[in-house]
Amino acid sequence: LNCYLLIVLFAIFAAAEANSSKSDSSVLLRLKSSVHDPYKVLSSWGSNRSVCKWEGVSCSKKDRVSGLYLQNLTLSGSILSFMIQELPFLRQLHVSRSSFKDELIANTKSNMSCLLEWMDLSGNQNMSSSFNLVQELLMGCKNLKVFNLSGNHLGGGFHHIDSKFSIGDKLEVLDLSDNKLGFNLPSSFFLRCRSLKSLDLSTNSFTGEIPETLFRRCTALEQISLAHNNFSSYLPSLISLPYLKIIDASYNAFKGQVPAFRTNLRHLNLSSNSFTITSNETCPLTSKLESLILVNNELNGRVLDTLKLCNALKMLDLSFNSVTGQIPEDICDILPKLEYFLAWVNSLEGGIPSNLMACNNLTMIILSYNNLEGNIPAELVSSLIKLQWLSLSNNKLIGEIPSLENAKEMLVLQLSNNSLQGKVPSRMGMQVIELRKNKLTGNIPPILGFTGKTFVKATLGSLKTAIDTEAGICMDTTFAIQGISLDKMKELLKIKSGGCFPNVNLLPALTYGYNISSPLHIDISHNNLYGEIPSQLSEMQDLQYLNFGHNDISGVIPAALGVLKNMAVLDLSHNNLQGEIPYTFLLLSSLSALNLCCNNLSGIIPQGGQLTTLKPSSFEGNEYLCGFP
Length: 629
What we know:
Layout: H1 2-34, E1 35-36, E2 57-59, E3 65-69, E4 76-77, H2 82-85, E5 92-94, E6 118-120, H3 132-140, E7 146-148, E8 173-175, E9 182-184, E10 198-200, E11 205-208, H4 212-217, E12 223-225, E13 230-234, E14 246-248, E15 253-257, E16 267-269, E17 274-277, E18 291-293, E19 300-301, E20 315-317, E21 322-323, H5 331-334, E22 340-342, E23 349-350, E24 364-366, E25 371-374, H6 378-382, E26 389-391, E27 396-397, E28 412-414, E29 421-422, E30 432-434, E31 439-443, E32 521-523, E33 528-532, E34 545-547, E35 552-556, E36 569-571, E37 576-579, E38 593-595, E39 600-604, E40 624-626
C-alpha cells in the first residue's frame, strides 16, 4: 500500500510540474502574440518543443522559466504585467534595447508576487512614463538586486513619489541614467540602501541638494555617478563611505570645498562645477587615489602644493581654473606614478622643472595657456621615453626646441605662441605638429614626419573637457584625430563616432586605433622659415591640414601636393611663392579650404573640382593670377 501511495504521489507531482511548465509556455505565447517581431526572433517559441529550449529562455532545475533574455532584438510592443505576475519563478528579465513600451507594468500593483532579482529595461526609448514606473517596480519587486532603467525617456520627477518610499534593502545596483528625471531627490529614497554598491543618476535634470541619507545610509557604495545634472549647494563629505572607489559628480553646480574622502577612493571627477578651494591636504594619509579631475571649476591659489599625500596619483587634470604658483621642483617625488599631467588654461608661472624627467611614466603633459617661462628642459624630451603628447603652447618659453631623436613615442607636439628660436628639428615622427607663432628660422625640414609609424593607441584620459561639447563623448569607441589646434579650443578634437551612451563617465580612456603612416596636422605658420616647400610632403598620404602661412618661403608650389587626397585645409598664404597653381590641385577631392593669398603667383587659376567651391579671397594678393574666380 505504501508503495502504491508513493507511486500515486509521484504521478501527481509529475503532472503538476508538467502543468506548471505548460502554464509558463502559455504565458510566453501570450507575450509573443502581443509584440511585433519582424525578423521572427521568437520563431522557436511554439507548443511543439519544451519551453526551456526556446530562444532567450532559461529554466530552473524544475523546468520552470527563470530567465528571459530578449535584449538587442528588434521587438516592439507591450510586456503585460502577467509577465512578472504569472511567471512565479522568474528571476532575471533582460529586455534592453528592444523597443518595448511602458505598458510593461501598466497594471502592476505594489503587492504583487514578484521574485525578480535582476531587471534590465534599458534603452527602450518608447517608455514615456513618469518616475511612478520606477516606484511601482521597486515597491513590487522587493528581491531586486540589479535594476537598470537607463537610456529611456521616462520624464517626470519625484514630485509624485510616495514620501515614505525607499529603494529595497536588497538592491545592489541602480541605474537610472540618461532619462529625463528632474526635481529634487527625496531624502526617503535612500533610507534603506544598506546593500547598494553602484548608483548611476547621470544625465538627468535633478536639482537641489544631494540627500544626506545617500552618504549616511548607503555605506556599501563602491561607485556613484551624479554627472550631468543640476545638483547644487555643497557636496557632502565622503568619509562615511569606506568602500567608495569611484565618484563622478561632474557637470553640476556644486560649490565650496572639494570634499574629504577615505583612503580607498580611486577616481574622483568633479569637473565643471564651482568648487573654489581644496583643503590643505587634498588626499588622506596612505591615499590610493589614482585620478583627480577638477577641470573647469573656480579653483585658485597654489593647488599643486596641496597634493603632497597623493602619491598614488596617475591622472591629474586641473585645466580651466585659476591655479597659481610654480610647478614644484620635487613634483615627481610627490607624484612618482604620474602618467597624465594636465593643467592648461591656468596661471602657473616660473620654469618647467627638469625634475619632471623623474616621472618616467609620463605619457601626456598639457600645460598650454599659462605663464611658464624659460627654456624647455632637454631632459623633458630625451628621458621621458613614454611621452606621447607634449603641449606647451601659449606660454613665455624661449630658447630652442630640444632634440627629438629619442622621442620615439611622441604623437602630438604643440609649442605654438611662444618665443622659441632656432631651427625646426629635422626628424619629428608625429601625427600633430604645432609650432606656429614663434621665432623659428631656417629651412623647412624635408621630412617633418616620417612614414611607416603606426598610430595604434593613445590614451587621452579626461581630455573630454577640451572637446566640442556637441560632439558627444563615448567610451570604448574608436576615434580618429582630425585636427588639433590650441588656438581654437572648441575645435581641439573632431570626433568620428557612431554614438554611445556611457552610464558612468568617470575616466573615459578615449582611444583611437587608427593606422596612420604620416602626420595628420602640420602647422608651422607665423615664423621666419625660408627655403622651398619640400616635395617629400607628397609622401604624407594621411595629411589633412597643412599650414605654412606667414613665413618667407619661396620657390614654386610642388605639383606633387595634388596626390594628397585627404587634404582638407591648405594654407600657403603670406609667403614669396612664385609660378603657377598646379593643375594637380584639381585632384584634391577633400579640399574644403585653400589660402594662397599674398604671394607672387601667376598664370591661370585652374577651374574644376573643389577649387570651384572656394572663396575669391583664397587667391587675392597675387597680382599676376588671372581667370577664375
